[in-house]
Specification:
By secondary structure, the chain is mostly helical. The protein has one domain. The protein is 82% helix and 0% strand. The longest helix is centred in the middle third of the chain and has 74 residues. The chain starts with a helix and ends in a 16-residue tail after the last helix.
Length: 103
């Protein structure tokens, strides 16, 4: 009976030690998972901000492409040709009167 008690006590101590070790391992795993989760959430926020910034740039470039296309159409009109002829070449229509300011 004394041997049984010694064996039982020894097993009880071993069980406690095992439980403590298992608890420590579980806590360590939880801590690691929590830290990694926070890191991943920060990365996700950073990526979301970057996606928003890039989307804004894409929208701006699309708007710019539309403006360039409209300007291209405008440069093919008669009105544009007249403006360039007047501004850059100083040409006028035959019946047009030009007023010059005295500086």
């Amino acid at each position: 009976m004394v041997k049984r008690k010694i064996v039982f006590r020894r097993k009880k101590k071993e069980n406690r030690l095992s439980m403590i070790m298992v608890t420590m391992v579980v806590l360590m795993v939880l801590i690691v998972v929590s830290v990694k989760s926070v890191e991943l959430q920060k990365k996700q926020e950073t990526y979301a901000a970057r996606i928003e910034q890039l989307q804004q740039q894409v929208d701006e470039e699309n708007q710019r492409a539309i403006e360039i296309e409209e300007y291209g159409k405008y440069t093919k009109t008669k009105k544009y040709v007249e403006e360039v002829a007047k501004d850059k070449l100083g040409l006028v229509y035959e019946d047009e009167i030009i007023f010059k300011s005295e500086d």
